[in-house]
Specification:
By secondary structure, this protein is an alpha/beta fold. Helices cover 60% and strands 9% of the residues. Among the domains are: 110 residues, no CATH class; 233 residues, 3-Layer(aba) Sandwich (Rossmann fold), CATH 3.40.50.300. Strands 1-8-7-2-6-3-5-4 form an eight-stranded mixed β-sheet, with helices on both faces. A hairpin with a 3-residue loop joins β4 and β5.
């Protein structure tokens, strides 16, 4: 990720373009959006006439609730009066009998005594019904209410006699018809006693009723007292509740409307607060533009990674990096001599990167160096080849530099040659090798022979046939032969026609895709070339079209420092 970030930062034009577009869009958004928000807020904000006044409704609801409470209170009073009348009707008058006779204390005592006897007879009758035995009948006949009746005494004596006879038979044991007859007779006597007890209880109840005051009727009470009319009070209470419910519903609607209006007011306030000061908007747009620009560059770099440094190039391809061409500080030595000042720019054979490239290739032990230099940028390939040829010339080697890339003509542009036939004339047989070769002086004592590509682009087959037929003869004349070829020519098998098919591939840090580099190296090996290594150009791309002729340059101009 660090390598990807460095490569992304090496694309200032792309980052700048995206950042400028993003800055403009952000600035427009920060200016236009608040204005639109303010207009939307003005349209959204409710007017004061739309807000309902709930104070009259609240007052009306209070009055309706008061009326409901008053109606309920009146209805409760009426119902209490009716309850009192009902209680009076149920209780009656405790002091007067039905005939108007005043009830005395002796009468009350007599009534209570009769009530006690009735209760006692009721218990004994229940006992006799549940357990029809002689003991139950005897207890019923001996009750206080039954003692004054002569018939009951006779029945009781007969019952006692029968019970005595039954006990004598019971002592003998066994079942005797006389015992059964006595038992049946005793049951008849018991039922007779029970019937007399029932008649006596009814008589006592009648006597108690005669001593009980007569209950007053409803008509008598209504005649003596007025009954309140609750229907009218119920109607009033119902009307009051209905009116209160209507007022409460209206108040709920008004409050819901107020809640909606408050929400609109809050939304309008939020929209109106979107604005910011111009310096803040400008700073935000700048920061946003820079972040988006770098983000786009980083995303593109992650999707299509490019070579970041020599370590990544070696790790990705498995091919050795011969040298790294980096920008060097301006050297005062290059400006002291006129030969250095008048030398073409980008030519610096003393740079460490170029020296390392030559040392790696020249240590092969061969008397003849034959090297093809190519890459994804023709200008970079031409500069590397010129510096390699210059170092070889400094090492007392006769050096020939051939430019086979007629489409770019980068060698002629870098060395500031006038247009000539060059390789095009050789292919068309208009020129011979001595006529096509031009000498280029590099520095004060060094010179190299150069064959420029020429104005026309010869066919690849013609160039390949020319080099295949003349390479051996040129190797006898020159110790070092350097070819600057286009990547398409090398991938088509141009190095394979040479006696020494060594190839050096030039890549640019932060610009050459890793996938493209791996594919190019594989294709070169497949077409017969032999990869000697990679050259990493870690500097801005050279612009050879801007190089001016020597006579037009000012004397004080300092050459390029690559």
């Amino acid at each position: 990720m660090a390598a990807r970030a460095r490569n992304a930062l090496r694309r200032p034009v792309f980052i700048g373009a995206v950042s400028i577009l993003t800055f403009i869009a952000s600035l427009v958004a920060l200016v236009v959006v608040p204005q639109q928000a303010r207009r939307a807020a003005a349209q959204l904000r409710p007017v004061s006439t739309q807000r309902p006044d709930t104070e009259p409704t609240v007052a009306a609801l209070t009055e309706a609730e008061r009326q409901v409470r008053a109606a309920d209170s009146t209805l409760l009073v009426a119902r209490n009066q009716i309850s009192q009348l009902v209680a009076a009707t149920a209780g009656g008058s405790p002091d007067s009998l039905a005939g108007g006779v005043v009830l005395t204390d002796s009468m009350r005592t007599r009534r209570d005594s009769l009530a006690t006897q009735v209760a006692q007879l009721g218990q004994l009758l229940t006992r006799a019904d549940n357990a029809p035995l002689l003991g139950s009948y005897r207890a019923l006949a001996e009750a206080p209410a039954m003692r004054g009746d002569a018939r009951v005494r006779q029945l009781l004596d007969s019952l006692v006699e029968i019970e005595r006879e039954r006990e004598s038979y019971n002592a003998v044991g066994g079942v005797d018809p006389v015992f059964v007859a006595l038992t049946a007779r005793a049951n008849e006597l018991g039922r007779a006693i029970e019937g007399m007890a029932t008649a006596r209880r009814n008589a006592l109840r009648q006597e108690i009723a005669a001593l009980t005051p007569a209950a007053p009727t409803v008509a008598d009470i209504m005649a003596s007292r007025g009954i309140p009319d609750t229907l009218e009070q119920i109607g009033k209470a119902t009307s009051a509740r209905a009116a209160a419910a209507g007022v409460a519903e209206r108040l709920a609607r008004e409050r819901a409307e107020l809640v909606k209006l408050d929400a609109r007011e809050e939304r309008a306030r939020e929209l109106a607060n979107l604005g910011a000061s111009p310096p803040a908007m400008l700073a935000a747009a700048l920061i946003f533009g820079a972040v988006i620009g770098f983000g786009f560059a980083l995303v593109d770099e992650v999707r299509h990674p490019r070579i970041a440094d020599a370590y990544e190039a070696e790790r990705a391809t498995g091919v050795r990096v011969l040298g790294v061409i980096s920008p060097l500080p301006r050297s005062p030595e290059r400006g002291r001599r006129s030969s250095d000042r008048n030398a073409p720019p980008y030519i610096d054979p003393g740079a460490d990167g170029h020296q390392l490239i030559y040392l790696h290739v020249a240590t092969a032990g061969s008397n003849v160096l034959m090297l093809t230099i190519t890459g994804d940028n023709p200008a970079v390939s031409a500069i590397v080849a010129i510096n390699f040829a210059t170092i070889a010339a400094d090492e007392a080697r006769s050096t020939l530099l051939i430019d086979t890339d007629a489409g770019a003509s980068t060698v002629a542009a870098a060395l500031r040659f006038r247009s000539s036939q060059g390789l095009s004339g050789l292919v068309t047989q208009k020129l011979s090798w001595p006529e096509a070769v031009r000498s280029a002086r590099i520095g004060r004592d060094s010179a190299i022979d150069v064959v420029p590509s020429g104005p026309d682009a010869p066919p690849f087959q013609a160039v390949s046939a020319l080099l295949q037929s003349d390479a051996s003869r040129l190797a006898r004349r020159y110790d070092t032969i350097v070819l600057v070829s286009a990547a398409e020519q090398v991938l088509s098998g141009l190095p394979s026609v040479l006696p020494i098919p060594d190839v050096v591939y030039c890549v640019r840090a932060g610009q050459t895709p890793i996938a493209q580099l791996k594919r190019a190296l594989e294709d070169i090996e497949r077409t017969g070339g032999r990869i000697r290594g990679i050259v990493l150009w870690n500097a801005p791309d050279p612009v050879l079209s801007e190089v001016r002729p020597a006579e037009a340059r000012p004397a004080a101009e300092v050459p390029a420092t690559v």
